[in-house]
TrEMBL record, chains A, B, C, D:
It comes from Pedobacter panaciterrae. Keywords: Ion channel, Ion transport, Membrane, Potassium, Potassium channel, Potassium transport, Transmembrane, Transmembrane helix, Transport. The lineage of its organism: Bacteria, Pseudomonadati, Bacteroidota, Sphingobacteriia, Sphingobacteriales. InterPro entries: TMEM175-like (IPR010617). Belongs to the TMEM175 family. This is TMEM175 family protein.
Length: 190, 190, 190, 190
């Protein structure tokens, strides 16, 4: 079964998710510079989410480059990932418009965490399909980065009940560690 | 005639349909967890429709993998399918925002039923084009699943006038039986 | 220069145009069947415009199948076509929400006419690029259908000042004559 | 690493950006010709931004045609470009709805300038990847057009504080000089 349409469909959904998030930057009525001030937190959460979608797109791109085939389970695992990613615009807007209060920050973390789990499930489905001795299985293992970001999400969600800035700090931290694409993969597909 | 653009265009429309549906999850004004409560029925109908769009995308993907060619009739049969699918966001939102009352649930069933008919017409157009002895015609026949879901739609639409929960139960039932992709197809294109 | 990205980009824009038009079907507040009544004219104009976008997509698909190459002029001629098509959702919504009054019907005709002109310019640019003896130039000439629809647009725009139903009738007529894809092209690319 | 998905994803984002901009043309309530009058400045800024997105798409298309490969840095440089382009709908709408007042015109210029810088960074990343002796590096150098438009942005942003029409004039001027695709590139990929 061909992986091209899975890539094309995922690209389409991710492209729309990114552009839907920007719609939350509602055009202000005034024309002064001050009219933009209330948009600053919305803009900041847009930037954060844009980077996260970028990370998912980059890693999805890398992973699918090494995938040789897909099956029905992979298609659904991919749709499952897209489902959680499709909630990013909602979670981003709720957080941005409420100036980073507790529940929106917690919700944002939950959606991010579920997307991370969904990505992990997709990777596992591809690994199982390619077999334990495949190049795919050898390239993608659980890394320290996976474990650290998983822990960071837990800290973010729990810590946000003390102050939401714990959550925000964790999300920025996770974005930074994932910003760099997988070197081991880049070498393989150079 | 080339099938690639038909696939690409359908992927585009389906990707946008999925993401438009999520726009109905309007960002609440409050930041408490209770502010999300009124969104629960909207969210549930989003999940249901997401799964249906996923089923259509998966089956469309499978069907087009075995199609060797397309013609003018197939292009229009495909556009006809996309037309009914494009009404999913409307039907989903109307049902979700009215807490599953009779008419919205009936309307949802009608749109789903028309999409199922359109899919059947597309399959027939492809079968006719490939000829009765083609691999395509041998792989895709009317199955018991087709008949059962057709009946389930009729029960859903009729039963919703007694209580809309009959309709909802039928839609969930149809989603479950279609969740599993066509094994006979997967074998062929393995 | 490669035609694939031109096709992909056009597919993307057309897919979004179709789905944006459906957004004008605003979800009604009530849950009775009567709540849908005010949507009927909006729905009818959506159906009409969906068919027009479908016609453009089909013909664009056919034309690009026979195109062997593109150049800078073709890229801009294509963007020019997409510009007028991008105004379809606006023209469709204005017409549907105003129950087919004079100016909205005239405006709809003007946008359609400009799109038709833009399509003609794109065809000419491709013809010039491929040369007068190419298969492309031999396949696509000005047909009686082109002349008739051009006249029909003029009648539609002028006649709408008597009664908008002249315009509507002309649009339906044009949709019908273009519904059938170009047989001469289908034969060539069979 | 394959450049196809980078192209497909960029096409998707650009297609959506164009179509989101048209959503700012909000359907007026009246049906007279006068009801369209307040839309004229919004429409004019839509036309301007459509041309700019068209220019970016065309040049991106040309540049990627000559690119033989991409790497992680190129993926992020491309996402960075898409980020600034994704702010076009906001900047366009703010400018159009405020009838070209100072701050919106300045903001529009800033977003355009950042997009131009991002494009330059993407070009540099591709140049570095292909090496100084590659066909890519030989084709794309800093041209007089780059320098002139950079200066024009500075004049536009500064001059808008005297009168916003300086800004508008500069944007129109930049659009005109970039309208013509790169002849040196077209020759190479003829």
């Amino acid at each position: 079964m061909n992986k091209n349409r899975l890539e094309a469909f995922s690209d389409g959904v991710l492209a729309i998710i990114i552009t839907i998030m920007v719609l939350e930057l509602k055009v202000p009525h005034g024309s002064s510079l001050q009219a933009l001030t209330p948009l600053i937190p919305v803009f900041m959460s847009y930037v954060l989410s844009f980077i996260f979608v970028g990370i998912y797109w980059n890693n999805h791109h890398h992973m699918m480059q090494l995938a040789k085939k897909v099956n029905g389970k992979v298609l659904w695992a991919n749709l499952h990932l897209l489902f959680w990613l499709s909630l990013f615009p909602f979670a981003t807007a709720w957080m941005g418009e409420n100036h980073y209060e507790t529940w929106p920050v917690v919700m944002y973390g939950c959606v991010m965490f579920m997307a991370a789990m969904a990505y992990f499930i997709l990777e596992s489905a591809l690994k199982k399909l390619h077999g334990p001795d495949s190049e795919f299985a050898n390239t993608f293992g659980t890394t320290i980065k996976d474990t650290v970001s998983c822990l960071a999400y837990v800290v973010a969600i729990g810590g946000s009940f003390i102050t939401p800035w714990v959550g925000i700090a964790c999300y920025v931290f996770i974005a930074i560690i994932w910003f760099i694409p997988e070197r081991r993969v880049e070498k393989k597909i150079a």
